[in-house]
Design a protein that fits this description.
This protein is mainly α. Among the domains are: 40 residues; 57 residues. It is built from eight helices and no strands. It is elongated.
Length: 157
């Protein structure tokens, strides 16, 4: 019988949140929802600028990868130039990266999450909400109706 790790490992999209303090997850969610509410009445240009900013936002994966790569380079150089025991650090970082890839947790993750760094899925949720507000998924008629309603509402004010 073939043993599959897919039944043991958490789903890719939930693994980081699963290993994050629930209070940290709640704060990140609350902050995201507040930002969406702040942008609810904005025009398309402002929404587009925010979406472009979200496209450049560093997520947990990118922060972890950059952090790990930096430490791997430093410990490798120190291992070659100063003391071979630095290679243990390099190996440890590799083990942490594997642990993160499989289970969604590694030692720097709680710090990164407490700093407010979001997962790719959390960023995507905000991006999708702003695209909905911008009318990206409306048919042409519905988009025109929404634009006309906004203009009417502005005129009434």
């Amino acid at each position: 019988m073939f043993f599959s790790l897919t039944h043991v490992l958490p789903p890719t999209t939930k693994r980081v949140q699963k290993h994050t303090d629930p209070m940290v997850n709640a704060k990140i969610k609350k902050d995201t929802e507040a930002r969406i509410a702040d942008y609810a009445q904005c025009d398309k240009e402002i929404l587009s600028n925010r979406i472009e900013k979200l496209n450049r936002e560093w997520d947990t994966e990118r922060v972890l990868e950059a952090n790990a790569a930096t430490w791997i380079l430093i410990s490798s150089c120190l291992g070659m130039k100063k003391d071979k025991r630095w290679f243990y650090v390099t190996g440890g970082i590799g083990a942490f990266l594997l642990q993160h890839a499989l289970f969604g947790w590694c030692p720097p993750l709680p710090i990164i999450r407490r700093l407010g760094v979001r997962t790719p899925e959390e960023i995507q949720r905000e991006r999708l909400a702003l695209q909905l507000l911008r009318g990206d998924f409306l048919t042409d008629n519905k988009a025109e109706e929404k634009e006309n309603k906004k203009e009417t509402d502005k005129e009434e004010k």
